[in-house]
Amino acid sequence: MAKRDKKKKKMKKSTKITLITITAILVFVVGFGAMYFYNTLGGIKKDNISKADIESSIDNTVKEKYDDSVINIALLGVDRRSHDTGRSDATMFLTVDKKHNKLKLTSIMRDSYVSIDGHGKDKLNAAFAFGGGALSIKTINQSFGLNIKDYVVVDFGELANIIDAIGGVDINVKQSEFTETNKYIQDVAGELKKSANSLSAPGMQHLNGIQAVGYCRIRYNDNDFARTDRQRAVLVAMFNKVKTLSPTELPGVIQKISPYLETSLGASDILSLGTGVLKSGVGNIQQQIFPIEGLDNCKGGIASNGIFYFKYDENALKKRMQNYIFEDKDAKNQ
């Protein structure tokens, strides 16, 4: 019984996907006038972070070398409880690369060992607990040489509702993932005090919100890298699903989704960014995870304090990430 309780405790701290940022960028402007857009986004929680403080976290060499043709936005999935801020157990960022006409979705391992301003060295996901989205952005910029100025965050408790709002997602559940996915589906249903159907077989299938969250949370049959791959698979599936919605379906979907999102982006920022992406005609998302196993001396292990971290050659990883994000070089072959 104790073992099961321990497992459930770990499960609750596992991946809580950030989501629908692609939606916010791509679909809010399709088929609607600007006035309707502003009215519909009224339900999104706006965080008025200090832009000057964020700017100070961007290295001057980054500002000098790279212009605004490559925009990066942090995507944070958190597990908020009544007594704390929560940790960003899913940390990604979306790259809108107007220079190379690409969209990229990049994950950073939550156990990456980084310096957090005012808090010393810790896991990347602790930055959100210490200072919310603003400190998360600063930590990513300072650790990896990026130019992130804004973020979007969603709480795990609202993920299933958002996936249901867009009508579910299509996911290929592997044979090796099937049994664990069903276990987590029932655990998620119990946490949300709802009923849920288990999957009848592995393979490509349509998942509702609870089923998709269960799929994302499995972690004991492989490793953290595979778990992060599942995060991105669901996010991309959501993007693909939203692209299929008709103009008549969008108003209701947007109104359902808006209350579950928190962002530092203003409505005009989202509108401008979305319009630019739509004009570019970019439809596919390139995916990557950092650090990369076997490169930049990336090693995971338990430190003297008994906590697991991913450590790596910080300068080498920063250069690799900048080359990939800003120069569009292959992430592995540089």
From TrEMBL:
Residues 87-243 form the Cell envelope-related transcriptional attenuator domain. One of its GO terms (molecular function) is transferase activity. The keyword Transferase applies. Keywords: Transferase. It comes from the Bacteria. PANTHER family: POLYISOPRENYL-TEICHOIC ACID--PEPTIDOGLYCAN TEICHOIC ACID TRANSFERASE TAGU. Belongs to the LytR/CpsA/Psr (LCP) family. This is Polyisoprenyl-teichoic acid--peptidoglycan teichoic acid transferase TagT.
